[in-house]
Each structure stands twice: as structure tokens, then as C-alpha cells.
Amino acid sequence: MATGQELLAIAKKHIGERYIFGARAPVDNPYWKGPWDCAEFTTWVVYQATKKLYGTTNNAKPSVADAYTGAWWRDSKKLGKRVTVAEAAATPGACLLRQPLSNRVGHIAFSDGCGKTVEAMGTAFGVRAGSVSGRVWDCGVLVPWIKYKAGDAPVIDPPSSPVYRLKRPLMRGPQVMAIQRALKRLGFDPGPIDGFYGQLTASAVAVFQAVSGVVTDGQAGPITMALLGV
Length: 230
Description:
It is built from 7 helices and 8 strands. It is an alpha+beta fold. The longest helix is centred in the C-terminal third of the chain and has 14 residues, at 199-212. The radius of gyration is 17 Å and the shape is globular.
């Protein structure tokens, strides 16, 4: 049985390779060197270790399988195990997942077990080593067919400032209005300037993020806010 450490070792070999939002990776090609997006990267790594598909929208031939964070969310509920973010942060090879809402884009990364990540992060970063801290994650994921071994739990710091994201009820306030105004000023239509972080605003943020080369998840955290000048 493959181990979480093996997943992590495979992932680390690809640090520095290119990211393209929506790129497709043929998971049955062990020589693939990118480009990647976040879900294609994690699914490809899992397939290399197990020869099984996980987190794909169409469990068809591996060469045409389409990985998606929403499919990771689905499979983590039906096939495998969801754990807390703290547990995943302490477990080499576990995944950290940000759920996509209303068919929007989420994000997924491998944990190194010490509070760091390996992830396909955006065109400005490519595949890189990142951090669990200071970010929003919805859960950790343990994939079946993988043997994991958790270590001591690292210290995980919350985001230093609010992360505006699509939630129910909708997040609202003057800072959301400032985000909307900045998006409109830059040519990205957030819908009405009403101070509600709804689907149109989240979509505009995601398009802005894709153009800016950062994680394309529709969430306005510190990096996105800085790029917007808010």
C-alpha cells in the first residue's frame, strides 16, 4: 500500500513547474511535467502512487479524466475520510481542501505534516511549497488506498485579516463594497455595488485572480486584497 510520504515525495519532484488555470493532466502519463492546476496535480499524484482515480468528475479513462475540487469534496464524503485541518496539517501526504460553492472553484494542496504545503498555486507561483497557516481551509482529506502516519500537530495560525468568501448568509459590509468598487475600477464586473459578497462578486474575484496569477478560488484574502489595492 502506498503511503502519505510517497505522495509527498512525488509531489515535491514537481516544485517549480508551470501552473495554468484549468489545465488538464493525463493522469496515466508518469512523465507529465505540467502545466497543472491544483486538482489535476493532486489527482495525478494520487494516481501515480495507487493507479486509481480520485477527485474526478468523470471516472472514465485516466487519460481523459477531469479532476475538480468539487469532485474531491464529493469523494471525500463518499470514498475516503474527512479529517480536521489540524489533523491534515500533522499528516504527511494528507490533502487540505477548500470547498467550491455554487460550482465555483476551490483549492487543494498536499500537507507535508509540518505545517507546510506542496500545491499548484497559480501562474505567478507554479507548483510550490506553501503554508497551511494564514489561509482558509474547509477540511482535510485522507484518500483510501493510502497509509498515513500523523506526527505532532504543528501550530496553525488563522488568517491575519478577514477572508471574504461566498457563504450563507452572505458576508457583507463596507469592506465588501470596497472590493466591489476596486473590481469595477479594474474592469471586472462584480454586479451591484451593494456590499454583499454574492456569486457575481465571487466570480469577478476569481477572474481577477486568474488574470493576476494567484490562487483562483473567488475568495478575497490578504493577497487578493493587496492586489486589488483595498
